[in-house]
Amino acid sequence: MDNNSKIPLKNGAHIAIVGGGPSGCFFANFANGLARQLGMDISVTIFEWRNFAGHDKRGCNMSVGVLSENLLQKLDGVGISIPERCIQTEIKEYHFITREDRISLHHPIPGHKPRIVTVFRGAGPAHSHFEHDVSLDNFMLTTAEGRGARVIHEEVKEVVLPKRPEDKVVVVYGHDAKELHADLVVGAFGINTPTAEIFEKMYFGYIPPRTIRTCIIETPLDRDFMDRKNDSNTIHVFALGMKDVEFASLTPRGDYLTVAIVGKRDIGTPQVKQFLNHPAVLKILPGGEDVLKNCCCVCFPKISVSTPAQPYTDRLVVIGDAGISRSYKNGIESAFIVAQMAANTAFRQGVSKEAFRRGYYEPACSIFARDNLYAKIMFKLFDLFASREHQLSERMGYTKIHKEGWVNQQINEGLWKLVTGDAPYRDIFMDLFSPRLQFALLPVTLGGVGEYIKERLGLKTNG
Ligand SMILES: Cc1cc2nc3c(=O)[nH]c(=O)nc-3n(C[C@H](O)[C@H](O)[C@H](O)COP(=O)(O)OP(=O)(O)OC[C@H]3O[C@@H](n4cnc5c(N)ncnc54)[C@H](O)[C@@H]3O)c2cc1C
Known about the structure:
By secondary structure, this protein is of the alpha+beta class. It has three domains: about 5-80 and about 135-210 and about 305-370, FAD/NAD(P)-binding domain (3-Layer(bba) Sandwich); about 85-120 and about 210-305, D-Amino Acid Oxidase, Chain A, domain 2 (2-Layer Sandwich), CATH 3.30.9; about 375-455, no CATH class. It contains 15 helices and 21 strands. The protein has helices at about 20-35, 70-75, 135-145, 195-200, 225-230, 270-275, 280, 290-295, 330-350, 355-385, 390-400, 405-420, 425-430, 435-440, 440-455; strands at about 15-20, 45, 65, 85-90, 95, 100-105, 115-120, 150, 155-160, 170-175, 180, 185, 210-215, 215-220, 235-240, 245-255, 255-265, 295-300, 300-305, 310-315, 315-320. Strands 6-5-15-16-17-14-18 form a seven-stranded mixed β-sheet, sandwiched between helices. The chain has a six-stranded mixed β-sheet with strand order 8-2-1-12-21-20, covered by helices on one side. A three-stranded antiparallel β-sheet has the order 3-7-4. A hairpin with a 6-residue loop joins strand 15 and strand 16. Helix 9 (about 330-350) runs antiparallel to helix 10, helix 10 (about 355-385) packs across helix 11 and helix 12 (about 405-420) runs antiparallel to helix 13 (about 425-430). The radius of gyration is 24 Å and the shape is globular. The termini are far apart. Flavin-adenine dinucleotide binds near residues 23, 189, 320 and 325. Flavin-adenine dinucleotide binds near residues 331 and 335.
């Protein structure tokens, strides 16, 4: 062990967490749990400038709020159960929609009915009024408080690293520049505020992940229309092969429908309109771009599309979206996993740069960063198929006709894992692009290519 690996977290230590979203709250819970387990007396402070119970947009943490079966099981394992008042919809089905087709996906284990729910991160869409506090983030923050964390509803303005590793980090917060001296600072500030700049400008090597802007729209759910189509508990996921849209979804949350659009680059209003006016979308959400006029709120939050450089140094670690996370899916679950890794490292291996590299950064990279590469390749291939009119629809047609066959089961399993985020991207890639499956689909692929060539040569007659 070199000197760097010897900065233990001692009895009486103070941990300051910048950000009270999922990753900050999870870290606080793990830290207080580990301290109890190891007989240590520590104090944990979470800085969170938002008021999640407040009925305005600033209280929202901008997410679709789907909680997967895996996450609910993990929360259960640490004694956290999401209260009924926060749960908006129990999801019963996923539908996967291409330009011409729609298939219903089911859990790969026959008969298994997974629990998947949707929640609001803030107090609900703008102008909504709930009788009870529905905010997931507020619930998590009060749970962390109940487990021993102190919550300060003020903004962290500056963080100053010590000159010597044995000294404390200074956290400057609030309008009057108050100071808190911490043995460990946890950056759990996400990617939707300018706080990353504070950490970048400390020049220990941190560079935040690259991001792109997505779009979220909250619109009142037309219950009669959805009930008639049996869609009130269904998440629709779209792979339409559009030029700028990677994928999109419609997710019911109680009396609201959440439209989420993720692009290949930043999403803006023109791409949103294009998506809303697409014939496949109009079948489920009539109204087209007028949805934008009649909706409750629209926001353009960021998602991360790369791994940050060095999210750690002596006495400091950056986790959650601002650190290493899973691309596109289940950000809250990946916040849980990395918060646990970072807390275990701090308590069991110390708070040095070297300890965080070995105990958090490298393992998190091997779980998420490498896996995210598979996601990139897979979405590229999907896009290629989806943008060639016959390729995806021929495949979907095949799965519909051969309902009981192996090919159908394999495609269902891969797509199920993809839309729910239930498995690493590598596994999904192996399911959907395995040589055996591609070989079985060869006649379909060739049929699609044939249709494409005929069309290009003008040999195909309509109807
Ligand atoms: C379009 C979209 C849809 C998504 N859908 C889902 C989904 O369905 N399911 C899912 O699991 N994940 C989803 N995610 C991802 C999920 O929202 C994130 O992965 C998750 O919120 C990350 O948690 P975090 O704690 O790291 O960051 P955040 O949730 O961003 O929390 C960071 C917190 O830090 C606070 N903060 C920042 N700076 C300061 C400061 N200087 N002082 C004090 N407080 C500060 C902020 O107010 C914020 O509350 C989605 C994301 C997007 C963009």
